[in-house]
Design a protein that fits this description.
This protein is an alpha/beta fold and 482 residues long. Helix content is 41%, strand content 19%. It is built from 16 helices and 20 strands. The strands form 5 sheets. The protein has a 7-stranded parallel beta sheet, sandwiched between helices. α4 runs antiparallel to α6, α4 packs across α8 and α7 packs parallel to α8. The longest helix has 19 residues. It is globular, with a radius of gyration of 24 Å. Bound molecules: nicotinamide-adenine-dinucleotide. Nicotinamide-adenine-dinucleotide binds next to α9 and α10.
Length: 482
């Protein structure tokens, strides 16, 4: 085992020594700079892209085993240091819940798909053989959200490096320190083992200008944006190909056939996770009137705290703000309340709930701003509907056409099918919490960049590759007559 590791190391050293010769050099060598030892943390977009380009050339000389080995370092650090890094993320961003900050890093380290996803396709026939392989793009420019700063970078890094790429990240300014620290640790471990630095680069002082510089940089071959409406729009206008993981406002429908206690447990598990910061999290619930009161009782039995109409009005007046002018005027979640604990929300309206309360909920009408707004805080409105048709219609309306995520609790296959067809969302969960769609309690795999408007879905290494076809004419099909 030790001998094999030493052999891999010596091959890697040999390859890297060869890369340093001029015939392999390009933009970074022309610049005369070497960035080794920076561990991926940069002040300037130009330098970060040059360093990531240098790292891309080095990575391109290595095989899949080396990519796997690099990814294993990222996984190990995310898992082994999840408590320290998760605490750092919580202390810096001040939103969400510590236990979930820790769990997200661990889960991404364990379950983000890696090189095993890169399966080639083969067409073998009378005219020979065609092999379709998946090649990297090069340097990918990434924008990451404050809701999961280091977790998004971790998932992106595993996916993108598995595909043979390197990345430069412009993180959200409110999560920049943990982003830089995580990236520094990943690169340091990789550099020590394989001698390649800066596979993952991060802008230490990110701004909208540095995001724009990344969008337009000639050295960036692809962009991947994870964030809300403004950045999703900016990316869609970019002249480069963009993979856009945009906003959501996931509705839940509960019909008269649902197991209400199970539905309540699922809505609390998904809607309260990290204080409702997940883009896939349950944001509003449409319940048929036949079981509406029973459903609210089930929510209380499952531990959520119910607000009355006056309390809902009070919470709305403090936790929802208005932005824009004229036709652009619209409601948004008030910054001070995003990702805060349910007990903090309750306290703001003079209500005491036990500190461990995970979720607040109430009956509202559909015009309450908590229904259309992506609130990202642990209060969920429940809207009474005449029947399942009305519930599905309203769910579709308030999903805003993001085609992101929706949920139904039902034992009627026809209702499930109707809702699935009507909402046309990227993720559609039946009888489970939202995270079941990412393989957490359901089947499937995980990423924290779910490309919705651009349609790639839950991103994987393949999302960040170009298809290349290699055709051999008339030979190498070994079946049949000559
Ligand atoms: P945000 O839109 O405020 O910020 C996201 C990132 O975009 C940040 O790095 C920010 O600095 C940058 N940004 C914002 N406006 C920009 C512009 N005009 N040009 C360039 N960069 C810009 O979002 P947030 O509060 O950090 O994250 C929450 C949002 O992200 C929610 O809407 C959520 O649904 C969405 N999200 C989506 C996914 C997904 O996979 N689809 C995952 C996580 C979060």
């Amino acid at each position: 085992m030790q001998a094999t590791e030493e052999l891999i190391r010596s091959v890697v050293r040999q390859v890297l020594a060869e890369i340093k010769t001029p015939q392999h050099s390009s933009a970074h060598a022309a610049s005369g700079k070497s960035f080794a030892g920076r561990n991926g943390v940069f002040d300037c977009v130009d330098d970060a892209v040059l360093a990531a380009d240098e790292a891309f050339e080095q990575l391109s000389e290595l095989g899949l085993e080396a990519r796997k080995r690099i990814i294993d370092h990222i996984r190990r650090i995310s898992i082994d240091q999840c408590v320290e890094l998760g605490t750092m993320e919580m202390d810096e961003t001040k939103i969400g819940r510590l236990e979930h900050k820790i769990e997200k890093l661990k889960t991404l380290g364990e379950r983000t798909p890696g090189v095993e996803f890169l399966q080639s396709q083969v067409f073998s026939g009378d005219h020979g053989l065609a092999v379709i392989e998946h090649a990297p793009f090069g340097v990918i420019g990434c924008i990451t959200p404050v809701t999961h700063s280091l977790p998004t970078i971790t998932g992106n890094a595993v996916n993108m490096i598995a595909g043979g790429n390197t990345l430069v990240v412009n993180p959200h300014p409110s999560g920049k320190r943990v982003a830089a620290e995580g990236v520094r640790r990943f690169n340091q471990a990789i550099y020590r083992d394989l001698g390649i630095d800066n596979l993952i680069c991060v802008i230490a002082e990110p701004t909208l200008e540095s995001a724009d510089a990344l969008f337009t940089h000639r050295g960036v071959k692809l962009i991947c944006v994870t964030g809300g409406p403004a950045v999703a729009r900016a990316a869609m206008k970019s002249s480069k190909r963009a993979i856009v993981a945009g906003p959501g406002n996931p509705p839940v429908v509960v019909d008269e056939t649902a197991d209400l206690d199970r539905a309540a447990r699922c809505i609390i598990q998904g809607g309260a996770y990290d204080n409702n910061l997940l883009c896939i999290a349950e944001k509003e619930v449409f319940v048929v009137s036949e079981v509406f009161d029973e459903m609210l009782a089930a929510m209380e039995r499952a531990g959520a705290a119910r607000l009355n109409a006056r309390e809902v009005d009070q919470l709305t007046s403090v936790a929802i703000a208005s932005v824009g002018e004229g036709e652009d005027k619209h409601d948004v979640a008030a910054k001070d309340f995003i990702g805060q604990d349910a007990a903090v929300l309750a306290q703001a309206i003079g209500k005491n709930v036990p500190a461990k309360t995970e979720l607040l909920f109430a009956e509202t009408d559909e015009h309450n701003p908590f229904v259309p707004v992506e609130q990202m805080m642990p209060f969920i409105p429940f809207v009474r509907c005449r029947n399942v048709d009305e519930a599905i219609e309203k769910a579709k309306f308030y999903e805003h056409g993001f085609r992101h995520t929706s949920m139904i609790h039902s034992n009627n296959v026809r209702n499930m099918t109707r809702m699935g067809r009507a909402l046309d969302t990227t993720l559609f969960v039946k009888n489970g919490p939202c995270m079941a769609a990412l393989g957490l309690g359901g089947e499937g795999y995980l990423s924290f960049s779910i490309a919705t408007p651009t349609g790639e879905g839950v991103t994987t290494p393949l999302t960040f590759t170009r298809e290349r076809r290699c055709s051999l004419i008339d030979d190498l099909r070994i079946i049949g007559k000559p």
